Amino acid sequence: MALNEDPTPATPEEPPAERARRRPRLPRWFVYPLTVFTAVVAALIVTFFTVDVARLWPGLKAEAEKRGSAYLARKMTIGRIHAKVTPGVFQFDDVVIEGLQPTDRPFLKARKLTVSLPWWTIFSKELIVESLEMTDWEMVVESFVGGRNNFPRVNGPPRDPTKPRKPRWFKTTMRNLLASRGHVTYVDHGTPWTVVAPNMRVTLFRRVARDDYGGTAS
Fold first, then answer.
1. Would you kindly state where each structural domain of the chain is located, as residue ranges?
2. Which of 4, 159, 167, 180 is most deeply packed, by most CB within 10 A?
3. Which region, left, alpha or beta, applies to residue 28 given φ > 0 means left and ψ of -120 to 50 means alpha?
């Protein structure tokens, strides 16, 4: 038995060139969380490149949590920080970004976050984050009536308009992101409506020719 017995003529097939121009887009509610991964890396970079690491190494984890929390305007905790044998590779275990309230489910929990950060590139005034790999993670995205949501502040602290803008002596570029074995829950409290996406795999990559980022989610 045919699944579709509608006698309406089939729509002419779209030309290949037109199909190529149409790129599938990730849902809006999922695009925004991708920026949080970058924000977490930025918060950790702030820790490493604005403090004397040698002096603070015994208390580096506490300092990283403090600065990361200040950057995101949300409490962030880190279970462990350690450098890998490969130069410029750091691993962060059990990273947690809390929800709007301490009693809420965490916005993000990541078992392992590995950053390939060749810090010597900073001398060229462009700090390159070669890759960010996050495994065994869980994200809870919530939206409320009136447009409020549970996103942390991904752009860092606001600039004081009464003070002159300080020139940035380096910029940060992330080239590749891979988040695997993830679990995303989206809760719309206004509808109400919930979407659960287990075993998520997310990629984000720098497109140099277009000066932007592309990505996939599956």
1. 25-157+168-217
2. 180
3. alpha
User: pTM of the predicted model, to two decimals?
Assistant: 0.74
**In this structure, are residues 136 and 109 in contact, taking their beta carbons and an 8 Å threshold?**
no
Angle, to 10 degrees, between the axis of helix 28-50 and the axis of helix 60-72?
A: 140
Token pair listed for 37? 């991964």
Spatial separation of the C-alpha atoms in residues 96 and 107, rounded to whole Å: 8
| Alpha helices (runs of H) in 51-124, residue ranges in sequence order | 53-56, 60-72
pLDDT of residue 140: 93
Q: Which of 45, 44, 107, 48 is nearest to 74 (CA)?
A: 107
Q: Please report which residue ranges of the chain form alpha helices under DSSP H.
A: 16-21, 28-50, 53-56, 60-72
Q: Where are the alpha helices (DSSP H) in 60-124?
A: 60-72
Lowest mean pLDDT among 9-18, 91-100, 121-130, 189-198: 9-18
CA angle centred on 101, ends 100 and 107, rounded to 5°: 50
φ/ψ of 132, rounded to 5, equals: -130, 120
User: What pLDDT is stored for residue 20 in this prediction?
Assistant: 42
Whose tokens are 């930025």? That residue is: 42
Q: Report the b/e string of 53-92 with b at 16+ CB within 10 A.
A: eeeeeeebbebbbebbbebbebbbbbeebeeeeeebbbeb
113, two tokens? 């976050």
